[in-house]
Amino acid sequence: MKTFLLIDANSIIHRCFHALPELTTPKGEPIQAVYGLASVFLKISREDPPDYAVAAFDRKEKTFRAEMFKEYKAHRPPTPVELISQIKKSYEFFDVFNIRTLNLAGFEADDIIGTLAEKFKREDDLRIIILSGDLDNLQLIDENVFVRTFLKGVSETILYDEKGVEERYGLKPGQLSDYKGLVGDASDNIPGVPGVGPKTALPIIKTYDTLENFYGKAKKMKFDSVSSSREEKLYKKLLEFEKQALQSRDLAVIKRDIPIELGPLKEFSWIKPDSVKLREYFQELGFKTLVKRVDDKPQMATDTGRIATDIPGNAVFFKDADAALKTEKSVTESKDALKIGFGIKSILKAFKSQERNFSPPYFDLGIAYWLIDPDLKKYDVENLSKRGDWPLLYSSARKKLKEYELENIFENMEMPFIDVLSEMELRGIGIDVEYLKKLSRETEVKIRELEDGVYKVAGLKFNLNSPQQLGEVLFKKMGIGVKGIKKTKKGNLSTAFENLETLKEAHPIISLILKYREFFKLRSTYIEPLIRLVGDDGRIRTTYVQTGTATGRLSSQEPNLQNIPIGSEWAVKLRNAFVADNGFSFVSFDYSQIELRILASLSGDERMLEVFKRGEDIHTATAAGIFNVPPEKVTAEMRRAAKTLNFGIIYGMGAVSFSETSGLSREDARRFIDEYFEKFPAVKNWQEKVKEEARTFGFVKNPNGRRRWLFGAVSANRGVAAEGERIAINMPVQSLDADIMKLAMIKLYKELGLRKWRDESVRMLLTIHDELLFEISDDIIKEAIPLIRDIMESIYKFSVPLKVDVAVGKRWGEMGK
C-alpha cells in the first residue's frame, strides 16, 4: 500500500520553535524550528518514506472563521519575528526536500489538508497520513486516513487511527467537532457553552451523535417538580447557548471542499532529495549533526557484480532471479560466495525449477530488515532502497543484526528456512478439481435457495450483499428491534455478523441471512478461487510470506491456505477437495496446546507445569481451579470458558473481551480472571515482568533473541500504552511458537534429505500455524510417522514436554488418528 503524507506545516514549525533550544545559523539567524523540521523529515524518510507528499501552510490574511467570529484566535500574541523568518525558510526546506507546498488565502492549512484527504482517500491501495503538531486533524480520521502527531518534543510520535481516537476521547473522529461545540477550544478561543466540560459533553455526544440531534430532543424535554434542579439548570443553559454551541462547532469543523486547484495524485509524487544538494543546504544552515544523517543517493546496482565498499570481497549482489540465472555456476554454486539480494526465495525457486543449484550462504536484505524492525511492513527493494544504496543497506543491516544480537536467528533459522519454503511452494498440494466444481454447483444451489427464502420472508427483492440495503429492510421495513446494535462509521445500523448473531431469536430471517453469508463466503472466498488457481498438474501452490507478521509467524497468500475453514459440515467438504497422490496419504502433525506449554515454561508456574507433566487436560484443570470444583465435576460449558480464558491470557485479554467471547457477565469475567491469577500466580508475575521490560527498554525479546519494538508501552495515552503492554505479553509466547515450528521444519528438511526420502517418499506440503501437513508414501508411513513426531517433540527443550498429535487420511477433510 502506498502512502500520501499531508503535512500541517505551521503546526509542526510552531512546535519545533517552542520545543527546541535556541539555535542560529553561521550568520546568526534563528533556525531551531527549521532544524526540528529537518530532523523530523530525515527520520520519516528513513523509517516510513512516503510515495506522495505535500506541505500545507496558513496565510497571514484573515480566514473565513475570523469573519464568522471576530474573537477567533484573537487572544493569541503576535507571532515572534524569529518565528516568522523561520516559516519563510521552511519553504526553502520543503523545496530542497522535493515536497510541494500549498496555501490559500482565507483558509487554514487544516482546510487544505481536509480537502486533500477527502479527494484522495478513496484511491486504490493508498493510505493517507496527516503529520501535525496538534490534534485538530483527528476529526478527519477514517479507515484510510490516519494522523501522526507528537508525544514529547519532536522526537517521539504516535499514529492515531479510529480506535486510537475512541480510546483517547471516548468518541468517534466525526463527533469531535460537535464535542468542541460544547466544551470549546481555548487554544483557538472557541467559546463553547460556559460551564460545560468533558464530563457533561461526552455523554451528550455519545448519546445523540450530533448537536442538532441533541437540541431537537432537548427542546421537547419537560421538567416537573421532582426533576433534579441541577439537571434542569444544565439543560436551560445548553438551550440558552444553542446558537453559540452550533457556531463553536462550525468553527471547529475542518473544511473538506475548499476551492483550491490540486491536480491528480501523481503531481504530489515524492522523490528522495539529492544527497549532495541536501548536505550543502544543511552545511549552509550549520546543521552539522544532520549532515551526518544524510544517506547517499539511492542507485540501482547492475544485474550482478561484486560490491567493493565495506562488504566482504566474496559477496555478490543479485538484482533478481533473471540476473542470477545468467550468472556463472562458479558463483551461484559456490559455498564461499555470499549471495545478497531481495527475495532470495524467488531466486531459489527459479533455480530449482531448472534443476540448478543456488548454494548458501544467503543474505536476504528484506528479511534482515524485518528482523531488525518487524513492524515496518514494507521490506521490498522499492521501499528499502529509499534508505540508501545496496552497500549501505547491507552494512547497516549487518551492524544492526549484531547490535541487536539477531545474527544467530538470521543465519541459523531464517536463512536456512528459505530453502524449506521454496521447496514446499514448488511442490504444492493435490486438488480434486472435478470434486471442487461439483461443490461449487452445490453451494450455488444452496445460495439461491437461501436467497429466495430471505426474499420471501422480507416480502421484496434487494441486494443481500449490500449492508445498507439489508439494514433498511431489517430495521426500517421489518421493524426488527435495534437495541444493542452498533452503528457503522457512516451512522447506519451495522449488519455485521456479531450484530446479527445477537438478533437470531428476534426473527427467523436472521438465521437465513447468516446461513446465506456462510455459503456465499464459502463459494466466493474459497471454492471459486481454488478452482481458478489450480495448476495444469492438478496441484495448487501458495506463497508463504516470511516477513508477513511481527512475531515471526508465516502468512500465506495467493491462495491463503492457512485460513481454510475447519469443523463444520461444509468445511469438511471443502477440505476433502485436497487429496493425496495415489500411493500416498496425508499425515498431519499438530503441536498440542503449544502456546500454553510455552507460557508454563516461560513463567515457571508450578501448578501449570505439573498439569502438563502429569499429562492432564489443561482446560479441565483450569476450569476446576476457577470454578472451585473437582476435575470430574467440570462441565463442557465450564471447560469451554476455561479454554477461552487460557488462550485469552496469552493475548493479554481483559474482562471486557473475556465477557464478550465467553458469554459471561463482566463481573463474572473479572472474577474468573482474578481467580485464574490466584491459581497461576507465576503467570501474572511473568506478565508484569514482561510489561516492565517493554516500558524500560522499549522492546521485548523471546528466549531466542527475536525482538519486537514496543514504544507504545511508554505512551502517555492510556489506550496506546495498554495495547503496547498487550502485545508485550503475547510476543514472547507466539514468537517462540513460530521459532519452534521453523526449527522443526529445518531439521526435518535436512533429516529427510539425508535419508533420501525428501520429495520421493515424504513431502512437506503445508504449515498451518502449529500444524504440519505431509504427503507420505504408504510404503514407509509407519516408519516415517514416529521419526517426524520425535523430531518435532524434541526440537526444543522445555520444563514440560512438547506433544504432537498425528492424524492420517487420503483427503484433508477425512483425517483420523
Key traits:
four-stranded mixed sheet; 34 helices; six-stranded mixed sheet; 817 residues; 50% helix; Rossmann fold; DNA polymerase, domain 1; 5 domains
Average predicted confidence as pLDDT = 89
Please state roughly what percent of the residues sit in beta strands, choosing from under 5%, 5-15%, 15-25%, 25-35%, 35-45% or over 45%: 5-15%
Helix content: 40-55%
Radius of gyration: 31 Å
CATH class membership of the largest domain: Alpha Beta
Distance between the termini: 44 Å
Count of DSSP H/I helices: 34
Number of domains: 5
Name the structural class: alpha/beta
General form: globular
State the gist of this model.
It is built from 34 helices and 20 strands. The chain has 817 residues and is α/β, with parallel strands linked by helices.
Structure description:
It is a single chain. This protein is α/β, with parallel strands linked by helices. The protein folds into five domains: 2-160 and 263-268, 5'-nuclease (Rossmann fold, 3-Layer(aba) Sandwich); 180-251, Orthogonal Bundle (DNA polymerase, domain 1); 295-401, no CATH class; 433-533, Taq DNA Polymerase, Chain T, domain 4 (Up-down Bundle); 600-735, 5' to 3' exonuclease, C-terminal subdomain (DNA polymerase, domain 1), CATH 1.10.150. Helices cover 50% and strands 11% of the residues. The chain has 34 helices and 20 strands. The strands form six sheets. A six-stranded mixed beta sheet has the order 3-2-1-4-5-6, with helices on both faces. Strands 7-8-9-10 form a four-stranded mixed beta sheet. α20 crosses α33 (718-754). The longest helix has 37 residues, at 718-754. The protein is globular and about 90 Å long. The two termini are 44 Å apart.
